[in-house]
Amino acid sequence: MEVDFPRGKGSQKRDKKATARKPVKRKREKNLFMTEKSRPKSKKRKISKVEEDDGKKHKIQGTVDTHISNKIEPFTIKSVCPGMVLLGCISEIKDYKLIITLSNNIKGVVAITEISDAYTNKLQQLADGQITEEEEVYGLSEMFEVGMIVCCKIADNKYNINKKILDLTLNPRLVHENKTAKCLKNNMLICGSVVSEEDHGYLVDIGIQQTTGFLSKKYTQTYIATMCEGDSLMVGELVWCHVEIKDEQELLSDSIHTIYLNIQPDIISKTMIEVDRPITYYNLVPGLNVTGIVKKSSEYGIVVRVGNKFCVIHSTHVNGSHEDFKEDQKIPVKILYIHPESKTVYATTLPHLLYYNGTTLDNKFNEFTVGDIVKNAVVCETSKKGIYLKLTHGITGFAQKGHLSDSTVEKISEQFPIGSKQRCRVIGFSPIDNFIMLSLKQSILNRDFIKIRDIVPGSLFKVEVKYVKDTVIGVKIGDLKGIIPALHMADVPLKTPQKLFNEGDELDCRVLSVDMKDNKVTLTNKKSLVNTTLPIVHDTSQIHKHLELEGFIVMMNDKGVLVAFYNNVKGWVPISELTEERIEHPDKVFYIGQVVRCRVINYDEESKKIILSLKKGTRQREPRKRQISVSDQFEAGKIIECRIKIKRRDVFIVEDLASSYEAVLYKSHLADFDDLCDLLWEKLQVDDVLKQVIHFSGTNKIVSFTTSVVIMVVSMKPSLLKQTENDIIPRDFSDISVVSMKPSLLKQTENDIIPRDFSDISKDMILPAVVKNIVEYGIFFTLTGGLGGLVPMKVASDNYLSYEDIVEHLHIGQSIVIRITYLDIEKKTFVGSMLTKHCFPNSVNKASLLMESYLDNKDLVYDLLSTSMSCKDIMSKMRSIPVGSVVSTVVNNLDDDGIDSTLSNGLQAHVSTDLTYGKTVMEGDKILGVVLSIDILNNRIELSLDDKVISAMKKTQTEDDVQQLNIHTTISSTILQVNPVYYLVSLRGKALGSMAYVPTKQTINSINDKELFPVHHKLNVKINSVHNENLIALVNYKLMEAQIEKFKEKFVKDKTYLSIGGCYTACIKQIHPSTMELDIEGYTGTIHCADMVDTIENNGYHPFSEYKINDKLKVRVIGFAKKKSEEKIAECVAKPSQLKGKIGKVDKSFPLKSRRNVFIKKIDKEEVCVFLSSKRMGLISKFDLSNDLTALEHVADHFKKGQGYDAEVVGCKGRRKIVLSLLDHREKTVEGETTKCFVNHIDIETNELSVSLPWKYKAIVKVNKNIENYRLGQWFWCDVLTIDKTKRTCTIKLKNSRKEKT
């Protein structure tokens, strides 16, 4: 039998010749498909002949020491070389490829054309249409099962060491290339492919030249029952075969041979070859079971001699401990692979491979899935490649060096000592090695997903930009790749995304779809989708009627719009459901990629057809269709003089002094600017006279608009429009017309350009307008006279803001300027634009004109209030103190907001904390301050304590001095005051002592979606003009926006030691009523009482009550605030819900009847100011504090600063202050009901008490005797007998009991 393993003295000589002829050998390997007959005599054939036995002894190649002198390294991607044949396990089956897991969890892919020649031929016949009806081509999922062991080869022509996934082939002809029948031995295992089914068995291709395998059907029964469910073997199917050779001498001839095969699982698992003679590498095939003799063992593995060859077994493939294996011990091993260059043979003794029966491996990892966290894995072995850990039930895990830590690991054995417990995460399985792949990296432990199949469409992820092109942005999601298509780079289309995105940028994106076949993730960067609060729909099973959700437009025509959601779920919006007013051309209003909010109005489960609507919800009451005639007194554009007759809920009812004609004047129509509207609303009272009022609209054209304005002012949230109906306006006022005091509308009358009818409208007209409503697709507006149109979202702002951003900065009733861009004469509808280039085409100094408009509007407001009976005296005092003058005041109060003081004439003054410039003062001190503005709303003036400015202001400044400043001169300045419309700045340098107004935006249409600069920020401004003795300066607005972004980046980067979102242990340094000062790793931080707890279980609980100075507190940094000097203060939160996961956004919506945590800020005369958050205030009327009258008489004792309460939202005061109640209702003055009241004046002579009731009602109570028993501030329960709503007075009867309401 020695003839089968040829060796001899001549082999070395011929090996040298073969070495010299290597180029010839490589040249021949390029032609892999030549038949034996067509091949000329080659040198390779001569090389194979020298392997024939010469009847002499063979030397054992290598020594034990050469194999064990170095550590036995595991299989890695660097071990791979082209042409290598090795064992793998099928881990995933797809339509056109197999995913193979090799040793050490290295992945490979087998294309459908690399299974076998027989299967490829079948596929070709199918493509050519040559397959008959009786024939059938099976798919990969029918031929293979996950867990099957296969013998594969690394494709020579596709090998790339830099690829993480290898290209493999299972084709037996390529796997066993260059092998001849002489390599076959009795009882060996070999992998073959079924070629055809015959009467009594199957022909099997084993890839050996001139050799065919025959598999009798009687040897397939058990296998077919197990793997094929009783069906026959399929053409192309791979099977492990046991070779049965009766006479091995026959294989030495050159004729075609037929060998007999057996695939019975019990035979396959027991197959073993006793090797007691010299062999060649051609005899060692991966998958072959042989006996070997142990020559040496160590902690790195075992060296075994098989015949005259040495095999190495890595420690991970040793069954048990290496100490169990003794020298010269005979053991069974299975060949894993042979390195073709080093000729090193790698084997295994693991039972699941050694006794593999040809079917599927048992899954020992059932209790684990990819992504699982393992808390107490024990390190059992370390190497320079990684560490091995023991998990539960004896399962082993392996963590490669690159997965041990996010930082570089220098000494693995020291950082991960044997026996230490580690927290790790499952990232994969290696069935060949019988262990789990683990990662100890914190970034992977914190990740939301591991594999692409774990990603759910709609999920939110932070991604890193890898490259930016015009049509796509490539991103990295963990270890996966993703793309952001051009349509989803932003809420609006971008022409040059390279200007907005850079490599390395981090973005918050939402997953649109996951393509498992192509391993591709598509994401959206549209902020309106990323930040949505509506349900995320990625499957039609989630759809139901009335569901509200957000999607994006992907197609539109004259019949409607197609809206897409996540995972390619789509719905259709018919043209009738696009807007409240029918439109004929959707492309005039919408654009591809636009995000819209829609509602499901119909869903067919069978056809999966979804019908949507962009209109408001069906719960909204349909407006009553009734004919309302316009009063004869109404004349669009007419200017009248009015008297305020009724004031209620942001609505004035005014009366024309000339004709007694009544009209509605809404709060939003008092001025062009919001702060001036708030001021007039608070100060104007019944019987005040308004001299300049314009007829704006007749009721029949503005019913829905007037209702919307009131709803908007009360709720501040468009989403609440559908919750409120026409009951806000009393029925007896619903038929009267609307008037306005907006200067922009009054100015129209000068040029007589008021469109009273549709015929007065023409294209390209530029007109002032008022916002009527804001919807996802545009802004509805109303012109003077009542005509209305639409501004589509795509032309609503210069910087292409989303619906959410528009709603946040624009409100119903706001003044705008529009340009008519489209007219539909038949439908009598028109479309407008708010873009700057359309509405202000010839304006050079647009921002200067806006500032002049504001100052003029403010002067009109001051003039009006100077004539108001309620403000006349204080306005006279305040206007006598010009802005920029230096005044002396006496300090009377110090708190977190700053310094309160009093002037010699009795006026109150206030210095905010930012403008104290570090001065330390005490109550009673006299201080000098420069006047910044007069705050009529709070009846005080605002001061700054900047010594440099005060010193300069003391010098006499005349108008001539101001005029001496050269126009267009660029001067440095410092911001003293910030208003949404302007910055008040103090000029520096030679202009020190002068102040200027710098507009924050260019036009009244501009929307500031950027954060404004804070107080003390320095700006370079250019003096533009002098308007009514006020300096107006301008900045480069594009440069300013860039500076704002740079400032925000610097603001955070300056404190890289404390990262936003990072959690730290802080030490408490100071405790104030509403804030605590912290020390965070040596840096200053602050935390507000509103950021301490999620819920308040006991009313009156103070979040700081459990802490004292030097206590430790776990906090999370949510931002930075710049205080005096250049130090930045870390703003922190300690709410348990905010210490983990994403930093929650501040809730800016306050729906009526919703519950909120509030914390006492300060107590005023009639109300209590509370914190809703560290930056948002609210008000609670004293009537709504408690039903305990004793507590109300001693409010300061029962309600202390910083105490927390659970309150209910009951309304709104202005646009910023939320009104709340600590009761389960809002105390009201209602005729016939019982309410609270308190004494505000006692007239001893007449024995009368003047009392105040809820909602600013007054009453006089006659006391018959013992009036000395009553005192100011005393509270009573009373019965309301009658009410005079016009005079806000009532008659009441005091109740005898003060204990409770009855």
- Low-confidence parts: 1-59, 618-629, 700-733, 957-963, 1051-1056
- Choose one word for the global shape: elongated
Helix content: 10-25%
Number of strands: 65
Number of helices: 26
Mean of all residue-level pLDDT scores:
81
- How do the strands line up in the largest sheet? 1-2-3-5-4
First-last Cα distance = 115 Å
Radius of gyration: 43 Å
> What portion of residues belong to β-strands?
35-45%
Major sheet summary line? 5 strands, mixed, barrel
Overall structural class, as computed from helix and strand content, comes to alpha+beta
Q: How would you explain this protein's 3D organization?
A:
- With 1302 residues, the chain is an alpha+beta fold.
- It is built from 26 helices and 65 strands.
- Strand 52 (1075-1080) and strand 53 (1083-1088) form a beta hairpin.
- The longest helix has 22 residues, at 846-867.
Write the layout of secondary structure elements.
Layout: H1 10-20, H2 22-29, H3 43-49, H4 64-68, E1 85-93, E2 97-101, E3 107-111, H5 117-128, H6 140-143, E4 149-154, E5 165-169, H7 172-175, E6 189-197, E7 201-205, E8 211-216, H8 221-227, E9 238-244, E10 257-262, H9 265-270, E11 289-298, E12 301-306, E13 309-314, E14 330-338, E15 345-348, H10 351-354, E16 373-383, E17 386-390, E18 396-400, H11 412-415, E19 421-430, E20 435-439, H12 442-445, E21 460-468, E22 472-477, E23 480-485, E24 506-515, E25 520-524, H13 527-530, E26 548-557, E27 560-564, E28 570-574, E29 595-604, E30 609-613, E31 639-648, E32 651-656, E33 662-666, H14 674-683, E34 689-697, H15 703-715, E35 737-740, H16 743-746, H17 748-751, E36 766-775, E37 778-782, E38 788-792, H18 803-809, E39 815-824, E40 829-833, H19 836-839, H20 846-867, H21 872-879, E41 886-895, E42 898-903, E43 908-912, E44 926-935, E45 940-944, H22 947-954, H23 959-963, E46 970-978, E47 982-987, E48 995-999, E49 1018-1027, E50 1030-1034, H24 1037-1053, E51 1063-1071, E52 1075-1080, E53 1083-1088, E54 1112-1122, E55 1128-1133, E56 1155-1163, ...
Parallel strand pairs: 3-5, 8-10, 13-15, 18-20, 23-25, 33-35, 43-45, 48-50, 53-55, 58-60
Antiparallel strand pairs: 1-2, 1-4, 2-3, 4-5, 6-7, 6-9, 7-8, 9-10, 11-12, 11-14, 12-13, 14-15, 16-17, 16-19, 17-18, 19-20, 21-22, 21-24, 22-23, 24-25, 26-27, 26-29, 27-28, 29-30, 31-32, 31-34, 32-33, 34-35, 36-37, 36-39, 37-38, 39-40, 41-42, 41-44, 42-43, 44-45, 46-47, 46-49, 47-48, 49-50, ...
Helix pairs in contact: 14-20, 20-21
